[in-house]
Amino acid sequence: MAIYVDAGRKRFHLDASNMSYIFEALPQGNLAHWYWGPKIRPDAGLDRRALLTPRAFSPNPVSNDERFSFDVAPQEYPTWGRGDYRSPAYQIRLSDGSAITDLAFREHRLLPGKPRLSGLPHLWLDNPLDADTLVIVLEDTLGGMTVELSYTVFSQLNALVRSATIHNHSQMPLTIERALSASVDFSHADWDWIRLTGAWGRERHVQRSALAHGLSSLGSRRGASSHQANPFIALVDPKGDETTGRVYAMNLVYSGNFVAMAEVDQFDTTRMAIGIHPFQFQWRLEPGESFQTPEAVLVFSDAGLGQMSETFHHLYRDHLMPEPWRRRERPIVLNNWEATYFDFNQERLLDLADSAAALGVEVLVLDDGWFGARNDDRTSLGDWTVNLKKLPDGISGLSQKIHQRGLKFGLWVEPEMVSPQSDLYRRHPEWCLHIPNRSLSLGRHQLVLDLARPDVTDWIIAWMTELLKEGGIDYIKWDMNRHMTEAGSELLPPERQPEVQHRYMLGLYRVLDHLTRSFPEVLFEGCSGGGGRFDPGMLYYMPQTWTSDNSDAIERLCIQYGTSLAYPAIAMTAHVSAVPNHQAGRTTPLNTRGLVAMSANFGYELDFTQLSDAEKQAISQQITMYKQLRPLVQFGAFYRLIDPHETNAAGWMFVDDKRSRAFVVWVNRLAEVGAPVRWMCLRGLSPERDYDVFVQGAEGAWEFSCRRGGDGLMELGLNRQYGSDFGAKSWYLQWPSERS
Ligand code: DGJ
User: Fold this and answer.
1) Pairwise CA distance, residues 568 & 560, whole Å
2) Dihedrals φ, ψ of 424, to 5°?
3) Which homologous superfamily is 642-738 in?
4) Residue 412 CA: which ligand 1 atom is closest?
5) What class does CATH assign to 333-633?
6) Which of 200, 366, 367 gets mutated to test ligand 1 (max ligand atoms within 8 A of its CB)?
7) In the chain, is it the N or the C terminus that has fewer CB atoms within a 10 Å radius of its CB?
């Protein structure tokens, strides 16, 4: 058991692999946060009570104790209205109109392993010995409510999963106005904060700046975790980098509105918190009901951002992604979107399938435009019947023909949306999110279905089930192409309208849970105009996400680099597309496009029927190479070597568990004349072992170059001189004993 309870002092000491997290119930009842950092012994003599010191203008809730003030004390689940003027973790309005509560420690429970959440995505275990859980029950007797704080600590990883459950034990309804998942108070403010920001086509760029006094926060109010922000935040030692310095990170297992924040107060302490965005959020809790917050994943590293990412990657591969896909190699895809857009028919698709099969592709994914009268993006979302003019043999007939060619068959859907020009909208105008009598805002000519309504979610489950049963479908690309506006739901009473966006997420999760459990052999890929919903919530159901609609290899450098901070390569899909690139207009070498896409779940997004012989040869070579590299990329350790946000280049590498094989990539942006000789130091190798180093020859295949020591490769590095515009180079490393 990695959880130590000092019952006398009501002190709780949680140990993860190499990290401790400590809090205590103070005599007046509230939970004070004492410590989160490198592992220390439970009896290491920790005493943080010196933090409790009388301060002017800091109110004292206990009349005979001038030392204690919520304004000063580090809190575990901060309350509002009793003297803590920082951002609270929760706020609950009682039936008398007040929003003051006093959560006092009542009891604790220890659980082996980790309980599963119902209705929300969550981390889970195969083996209960991988983690232990502590539940702390706090009580506000006057308000008649309890809050249960759950802490799961992993034995092999420096990670903690937190969530809160609010129960109404009173006879009157309560209104939750804020319920964050985790909040931690640090005793200093000497931090940089890192967040992942962007826009459509520019997702998850890394932003880093010094934390200043006041509130620094990032969030989404868009009804989705969004392209614009990711539910991730890290506080980093200002001198820290990829390999050095302490890092404290939080990631929310949720796909809707969120806030991630860091607040520096008057005494230079920092409060870090994450949870559902309180903006326009409320939840009415009837007597006897409970509200469960999403889970927050807390990761600590004392060896920089690299170790933080390694922990997230392990957690998400082993404890988040669904079976059987978390352990399964992901296939190489040809998606017809950028090859044909809406302009395809069965014959054209079969031509694509023939050329894809000949080059070694494993799945053909048919994208948007196969249903209703959808020949552009203005119509037919909601009319999920096949367009027989384009596909005379229907979806099952097409899939049969694709299967006959030795390929698996994938299909695009966008079940959360409806086009105003559709039979569905004509039949059920009330099924979209809307406010009665108020005009509706369109996004990409479409409306958002009201997934807070059970009849809508039942309908999605029904038609998707039929499609998956009858269609011979191996792979689903689940898209979502606009954000919410006029987010009202007709079935809910006025006082419950602020619940709509969270109820939408619960409805979506219900649908995804049902479908992915019913069809575990179908590989689901998440997508929201690219990476607009790239979050742990989605990864729980759909083990990979289309990383960005921007398929330009150079633009992808920052996108994939930023994404890798929290998410493993096996969670990302990346495709080689045509040049000039359809989004950026840039022409890059096929080799560069290949290497960038090969650093994730690999595929193509171009017209295979138009390839020259040289391109066919190069692509067949890439596919062979990826099949060899696939276990390394999808299950190996990932290291960021050169940051494309700061330099003219990018570099990264993958190393297998044994450290016997590695794949290294370097991409140049612009050629430099008279540039210094530059080196790229590798990581993660065995310093005492030699490696055979292979480089790509003119034909793109690996050719033996030299034998080097792991120590030399890590300390002296590889020479990366003379890059051309958008040029790239890759190396494959192997212990000599592993060569067949
Ligand atoms: C947005 C996706 O990100 C694209 O890949 C493509 O599927 C289109 N939607 C289709 O409408």
Assistant:
1) 10
2) -60, -45
3) Golgi alpha-mannosidase II (2.60.40.1180)
4) 7
5) alpha beta
6) 367
7) C
